[in-house]
Amino acid sequence: MRRITTFSALILVGAFGACSSDTDNTTDTSTPTDTSVVGDTTVTDTGGDTLPADTTLPDIPSTPGTVKALQGEAAQAGCDGAKILTINPTVSLTEVVVTSPKYDAFTPTAPATGGELDGYYVADQDGGDFSGIALVIARSEATDFKPGDVLDIQGELVEYYCFTQIEATSYTLKTAVAAPAPIELQPADVGTEAHEGMLVKVSGVTVSEKVPGGYLVTGGLKVAFGFPFFLTMDVGATYDVTGVVNFAFGEFRLLPRTLADLKKQGGGTATGITAIQSLAESTGCTASSIQNFATGLEVTGVVTSNKISVAANLDGYFLSDGTQDDYSGILVTVAKALATSFVPGDVVKVTGKHVEYYCLTEISADAMEAATDTITAPAAVALANNLAPADLEKYEGMLVTFSNVTVGDGAVDHGGSPTDAGVMIDGYVMRDAFTSPVAGTVYSSVTGFLIYSFSNYRVSPRTAADLVVQ
Prior knowledge:
Blueprint: E1 2-3, E2 34-38, E3 41-45, H1 67-77, E4 84-98, E5 103-106, E6 117-123, E7 132-138, E8 150-160, E9 163-174, E10 183-184, H2 187-190, E11 199-211, E12 214-217, E13 222-224, E14 238-248, E15 251-255, E16 262-264, E17 269-270, H3 273-277, H4 280-283, E18 290-292, E19 297-303, E20 308-311, E21 314-320, E22 329-335, E23 347-357, E24 360-372, E25 381-382, H5 389-393, E26 399-406, E27 416-417, E28 424-426, E29 442-453, E30 456-460, E31 467-469
Parallel strand pairs: 7-9, 10-11, 13-15, 17-19, 22-24, 25-26, 28-30
Antiparallel strand pairs: 1-9, 2-3, 4-6, 4-8, 5-6, 6-7, 8-9, 11-12, 11-14, 12-13, 14-15, 14-16, 18-23, 19-21, 19-23, 20-21, 21-22, 23-24, 26-29, 27-28, 29-30, 29-31
């Protein structure tokens, strides 16, 4: 059993720093104004957001150690839409299954002072109504649970502005099972207390409008941001959507966990940069030619470079999924005839195909358009010198930094100068503005985009300022 230092949580459930979010952590301490009976439970309304008026709370099974038991206990206690309430300081769950990847449950806006939280959703393995719940856990625990992982959990049962969750104080990771499948619901049935915290799926819903924090679809259901990927949907298009049910700001919302949870009907295939870069066609590429793979891909990411002229008829941009994770960067090429003018921080939607250009992974764009508001592009990732090729491959297309680099005596190879760091320095990004460094030059740091060209990994600086002489 892993025990966790007790923490006091101010939890922003469903927030993600790189995407838009409508999470508000303001507490209203207004005087209670109304008391009503919901099912067999008396619920006091103190103002602020409350459960929808038609919420009913039937009898809930109360087998100890189950999510259903905790949801039943929370229902009996009631909630206050303007406060965080501890329902029970000592509760437990036995062999619940993780249903979502990790998300950022709380990161302070001020300089880090501790208290950061990660979040997951978990469920009873036998399913059924009231079988899902949110789990928050101290980020210092460095957890990385995956859907299908099984946990025993001890902690506090909390109503976070009427969203039920467990704050873990200890946990035990047990033998994993198959990741649970979602239950199929009609859009109107998602927004009920019985499905809060559960993994569900709605099919054939059409996007009516883009709203703060997400999109409205058939039946007025809100599909919202909540996990670390760029959520984009096309107004007027029809989707099958899988996600977990969250309650915030007086409404139930469906939170897709990854791009794979969005299936556009009759359109392109939504995918992510990591999914493309980690394909065997990319990581295992050995071809001395141009290879074309999947077409009709739809990828959303944040621009990390200025526009580059990569060929007589092509411009290029480096794109990130907004993280510094492995395989999170890629090169996008786009026709100069489209006259694009994106800058670092622009979030864009790219439609195109996966190309291996002599083993440099690219998206060849048919279209490239602004998707959402501008955000801060990820900073460079610091890499160790002389990494193995398989390790360097993980960072292809990403902005990286090497330290204490000495330029070697070898001949310049297709614009690249050898170094003792296991990579070349070249002018792929700077082009004519690049001057090959002199042999013997020592740099305290070299920053640039990592590419693969002429059988070598190369770091390509953005400007001369990326080459810091020691």
